[in-house]
Amino acid sequence: RVLSLISLAASASAFSTPSVNSRLGATALHVSTRKDFLQAAVFSAVSGMAILPANAGETVTTSSGVSYEILKSGNGPKPDRGELAAIRFAAYAGKNKIDDIFDTPEPYYTRVGSGSLIKGVEEILPSMRVGDRWSLTVPGNLAFGPKGRPASAGKPRIPADAEIIFEVEMVGLPGKEEELIDIIGD
């Protein structure tokens, strides 16, 4: 598998257009640059996780069962594991709204891969770019599991193994974004 990744990476024809969809077995790749391709290929080989395509309007299901639809494509950087990411999201269990921070003054800040969000969302965040807005469907085993979540002040109870719909927007990566002074000048 790694040899096939290396030989594909070496092939100049794999990079003939800025947006190439290739197939390695059942894994779909979205490649915008050679660097993106190599990073995605190495990540896939090491982690065993699917490489996620990034075509607006496309619905994709990962090998773990999380599915997502790209509502809006951004062109900013992708987060690295351990990096601070600013996101806005709304989450639903059926018709019950679990949480919604799209209208709050500040986004939610999380370290990518830290486990501070449900597993299904943690799996997808490293694939998003700043400016992306995706709708995720997270199966119960990658959300709140067989215990669900009891009701708490202002938050409804989540039944066991409930599927969660999670709309998430990557709004910033503090430290990777251009400084305002660089954008507007002195």
From TrEMBL:
Residues 82-174 form the PPIase FKBP-type domain. Coiled coil: none annotated. It catalyses: [protein]-peptidylproline (omega=180) = [protein]-peptidylproline (omega=0). PROSITE patterns: FKBP_PPIASE (PS50059). InterPro entries: PPIase_dom_sf, PPIase_FKBP_dom. Its EC number is 5.2.1.8. Keywords: Isomerase, Rotamase. Gene3D superfamilies: 3.10.50.40. GO terms for molecular function: peptidyl-prolyl cis-trans isomerase activity. It is an enzyme of class 5 (isomerase). It comes from the Eukaryota. This is peptidylprolyl isomerase.
